[in-house]
Amino acid sequence: MAGSVSDSKFLAKFRISSYVLLPDSEDRVTDSVVPNCPVLVFVNSRSGGQLGGDLLVTYRSLLNEHQVFDLSQEAPDKALRRIYLHLERLKLHGDDYAAKIQEKLRIIVAGGDGTAGWLLGVVCDLKLSHPPPIATVPLGTGNNLPFAFGWGKKNPGTDQVSVKAFLEQVLNAKEMKIDNWHILMRMRIPKEGPCDPIAPLELPHSLHAFHRVSPTDELNMEGYHTFRGGFWNYFSMGMDAQISYAFHSERKLHPEKFKNQLINQTTYAKLGWTQGWFFASLVHPSSRNIAQLAKVKVMTKQGHWQDLHVPHYIRSVVCLNLPSFSGGLNPWGTPNSKKRRDRDLTPPYVDDGQLEVVGFRDAWHGLVLLAPHGHGTRLAQAHRIRFEFHKGAADHTHMRIDGEPWKQPLPMDDDTVVVEISHLGQVNMLATHDCRSKSVYDLATPNCHDGEEDDSDTEPVVEGEEWRKFGAADTFKIPDEVDISRLS
To answer: Which domain of life is it from (predicted)?
Structure first.
């Protein structure tokens, strides 16, 4: 009995009264005790084999079932729009409970990196006066986002004890800002053939935020196709994205073969071998190498575009925001004092408005990351990056944002295909005491070891506006000029 009372008191710290969640609810209690850490939980029930569905059941059994959402049944923008508009109405009527819920609210998202990116994009697009910080449950294969903020990279337990332990971590987590990044791709309308992104059989969550802009969008240009999107962890292009595309295609065709994280990771490694990533110099056409495919430019600190030298052997380039890639590896590493001085490099902070640009030649090069102080070929740090594709260099390439890949057709008769990445504000994340990410403003960030590495690489480096929306909240149609905090 004592244990039951203790559990009830603990869960009361997270549970939200139904009348705040449902506009037509009769369950209004004016003297309700405000929870210490009210949460909204979004679960991708299709992630992690059966884990997503099991986790959904457990959260609903512990909390108010109306504060737990199945992303396969309801898009997060619809749920958040409904709840926040209702909270504003309650606040206008003097409801102190609703005001405090909105002030303290935190979000839990359970799924892969693509699912987490989907939620981040929606929260950014809603332009809330106080955006809720987000904790991520690692239900995917790579789980780079959860790992970067201390939530682990192994799929979690789905029983009540495991979920309560996670809730306690959310209660004690600290808020941490990370940079948002906007992608713009523009090309002339081809004389023949489509140019829309080709996803692996169906549109991944992160690609909801990468789509062709509407004719009325301010970024639209007559005679051109313009696409926009956003990311929080990384954008990559080249052979690594090609392997990821093959993996996602195989998983969509044969979902029964992908039942747990270990099988997924083993399959990923096999595809890397069969796709030639381990012996790329023999089977990978040189025309697909980054330098042959596109000219890369970075914006200097003085605001001028400058060509970035990319070695001819680089077959994959990663623009990295967080120190977690390919299952938790850090491609940038920590430059030693000599590199910092001679090349004006810094550690990879997640809120400094800069991306780290890293190149790889093949899988063996990537395995260097497993060694102490290992890192890829450091190309640049920049707050704006542009890829200008050479005319006729290839009919397509592979791209990836936050773990979700697509195949991008390239018109052969167009010499104006441009992909540009720029900084677009920040979003709030929740971080545990095991957080690996560093903040430029918090020198006491947990586990921020600034160790000196003994490296001797000689790769070249170049020294280092914003758009309104990521487009993730497709069904959220409140006009941009309307402040949601003032809606009644």
So the answer is: Eukaryota
> Are 188 and 236 contacting, i.e. CB atoms less than 8 angstroms apart?
no
Distance CA 359, CA 357 (A): 7
Report pLDDT digits (tens) over 117-159: 889 988 988 888 889 999 999 988 778 889 999 999 888 899 9
**Residue 455 pLDDT:** 52
Q: Which secondary structure element, helix H or strand E, spans residue 101, and what is its range?
A: helix 96-104
On whether the CB atoms of residues 381 and 399 are closer than 8 A, the answer is: no
Q: Where are the alpha helices (DSSP H) in 140-235?
A: 144-148, 160-172
For 400, other C-beta atoms within 10 Å of its C-beta total 25
Name the amino acid, one letter, at 396: H
| 77 touches 70 (CB < 8 A) | no
Is the pLDDT score of 406 beyond 80? yes
pLDDT of 231 over the 60 cut:
yes
| 336 within 8 A of 453, measured Cβ to Cβ | yes
Cβ-contact 184, 467 below 8 angstroms: yes
Instruction: Tell whether the model's pLDDT for residue 359 goes beyond 60.
Output: yes
What phi and psi, each to the nearest 5 degrees, are found at residue 57? -65, -45
The pLDDT score that the predictor gives to residue 211 is 66
DSSP string spanning 102-150? HHH-EEEEEE-HHHHHHHHHHHHHHT-SSPPPEEEEE-SSS-HHHHHTT
pLDDT tens string 419-454 = 999 998 899 999 999 898 999 887 654 444 444 444
Which of 454-477 are b and which e, b meaning 16 or more Cβ less than 10 Å from the residue's Cβ? ebeeebebbebeebebbbbbeebe
Comparison of pLDDT for 373 and 12, the residue scoring more: 12
Summarize the confidence of residues 25-41 as an average pLDDT: 80
Crossing angle of the two packed helices 113-126 and 76-92, in degrees rounded to 10: 40
- Bridge partner list, 422: 182, 384
Amino acid found at 166: F
